[in-house]
Amino acid sequence: MTTTTTTTTSGGQPPQPSAEPQLIPDVPDDVSINCLSRIPRYHYPKLSLVSRSWRSAITSSALFTTRSLLHTTQTSLYLNLRINYSFHWYTLLSNCHSRKNPQKPIIPLRGLPFQPVGPAFAVLGPKIYVIGGSINQIPLNWMWVYDCRFNRWEEGPRMKVGREFAGAGVVDGKIYVLGGCVVDVTAQSMDWAEVFDPVTGLWTTVPSPVEVRLKRMHASVVMEGRVYAMAGRSGVVYDVGLGKWGNVSKRLDLGWRGRAAVVRGVLYCCDYLGNIRGYDVEEDDWKELKGEGKGLPTFVYGATMVNFDGRLCVVWEKKGSGKEVEIKCADIEVWKKVGGMLAGRILWSGVILKVPDGAAIVHCMAAEF
């Protein structure tokens, strides 16, 4: 006869098994989370294969909070593309500037249930905000929020008015949205500009004079606490700290074409010839970005760009073989030389995605978490 022996505790009760195994045997979980928080995020897909508990840990709010406290957050590039009349989202898995990994794995992400045409975009911490837009030419007051940490979309608080092709910018942790609404309707004109506070979850009207109320904005940036938005051959600027409105300078107006990014106080955009030009707000002057070393590639007009950890990241389309379009990316270190000239050095450049002919880049963003 087989005898089964049960070990009891000093109280006479059998020991209870642990509800969850430790992430690392004999190491407290808070210490393990601290260790995992120091590992670059592009290793996380492999780490998630270790066990179910590790997979849960690397997608936990505790880990991202620890990363923030340890200052080990990283910036990732996000792309929104239009392919065959539908919208697709992607992110680059590894650091754009890493030369050790010439291949830049790009991962498709969960998209919106439906994406309107002409929304404004804003990034605040680990979240991407898709604001307004239109469906069947009807402007919407909706806002969708994508949490990059958890690959999750949720509907945010709605604006006071519907907007399409509005300008947007983040200043002091709040999102300012300008224009994109019908200005000949009194109620909408009053709310021509709004500000969203993610702490309170409320939209508030920003008072604006009638003369700045343009309708559609084709580009917007933030420089030195001011939101700049361009509409055709004119543009407006709002100084958040002073609460004052004005028109952009004539030089800025003449040189700003298409989507732009601000790096180290200089606004960069692409001209009709495919060259990148930079506008220095202090000098009120445009200068061409000159390549150092191998020089800079020729971009296409309408290339989109973003500030990526203090560098200029440019994404553009190039005709590929057959019925394909190549989505290319360049990570450029930029600086101002003695005498005020602008210089740039390619850290990395290459094809990150191939898509069907007719596809187009809607927007690119950089989120840190």
TrEMBL record:
InterPro entries per UniProt: F-box-like_dom_sf (IPR036047), F-box/kelch-repeat_ARATH (IPR050354), F-box_dom (IPR001810), Kelch-typ_b-propeller (IPR015915), Kelch_1 (IPR006652), Kelch_FKB95 (IPR057499)
Region (Disordered): 1-24
The F-box domain, residue ranges: 27-67
Pfam family, any one: Kelch_FKB95
Gene3D superfamilies given in the database record: Kelch-type beta propeller (2.120.10.80)
CDD domains the record matches: F-box_AtAFR-like (cd22152)
The organism's place on the tree of life at top rank: Eukaryota
Alphabetized PANTHER family for the sequence: F-BOX/KELCH-REPEAT PROTEIN SKIP4, F-BOX_KELCH-REPEAT PROTEIN SKIP6
Record protein name field: F-box/kelch-repeat protein SKIP6-like
Species this chain originates from: Coffea arabica (Arabian coffee)
Originating gene: LOC113701156
